[in-house]
Amino acid sequence: MNLTLEGGKNLVRTLKNKLTNVTDVDVGVCPPFVFLKDLCEILRGSPIIVGAQNMHWEKNGAYTGEVSGLMIKEVGCTHVIIGHSERRTIFGETNTIINSKLKAVFDIGLKPIFCIGERLEERESRKTNKVVETQLREGLTNLSSAQIGQLTIAYEPVWAIGTGITATPAQAGEVHSFIRNFLIKEYGNNIACKIRIQYGGSVKPDNVRELLIQPEVDGALVGGASLDAGTFISIVLTATKQ
Ligand code: PGA
Which CATH architecture is the domain 46-159+166-240 placed in? Predict the structure, then answer.
């Protein structure tokens, strides 16, 4: 819930101009709902992907205040973030709700960026793997192998989001390996290898390189540092060199 419409337009215009030659990294932006249509229009024809930050699990109906996947698709989105930790902690989204949303995403023909991650007290009581496994198991219930293969998973330790505290590369790498092994065990190597696992939580130009060189870290979900075009571009350019 940041920037104005004008600010968002300026941001994506700069990204469009400056990232035209970047072909070896997929770049996307996920603006607030009310900016999506305008920003999709600006980015039309560019390789920059547009996603929403959330959606409802039903296609339409009496859900005042909600926005459906069909609606975000209609304005040009191809992707949508599902289960961001702020949706879970502030708005009470459970793994069951997130599972309904993931099913709806595939039903509609969008692609999800599925967020998981432990809270500080869970890490401190050594429950990280258990929490992440439950989020995966319950979030992915009854999805087909073909759908699982199209996932992007974002591992975002809640204590690292917007706090300036980044997981160390070793901490991120450890949980990413755990997630990959879970996916291999549950869905087999072929499917598990297709899934992109991104790290999120205070990613910045000066820490992105050491995070991305971890073997199972396939990308980054950037929050605060994406609000400034120069900072975000610097993160993308660092990623192209990995
Ligand atoms: P941050 O946000 O990069 O500002 O920590 C990440 C997020 O919102 O997912």
Answer: Alpha-Beta Barrel (3.20)
Residue type, position 236, single letter = V
Cβ–ligand 1 distance for 161 under 6 Å, the answer yes
156 is catalytic: yes
Where do the domains of the chain lie? 46-159+166-240
Query: Which residue's entry shows tokens 């459906």?
Result: 68
Q: Which helix (H) or strand (E) holds 28?
A: strand 28-29
**Nearest-atom index, ligand 1, CA of 160:** 5
HSE-CB of 58 using CA atoms within 13 angstroms: 7
Phi, psi of 233 (to 5 degrees): -60, -40
Q: Is the pTM of this model over 0.85?
A: yes
Residue of 86, 118, 122, 156 marked active site: 156
pLDDT, tens digit, 9 for 90 and up, residues 88-128: 999 999 999 999 999 999 999 999 999 999 999 999 999 99
Angle at 167 between CA 161 and CA 173, to 5 degrees: 125
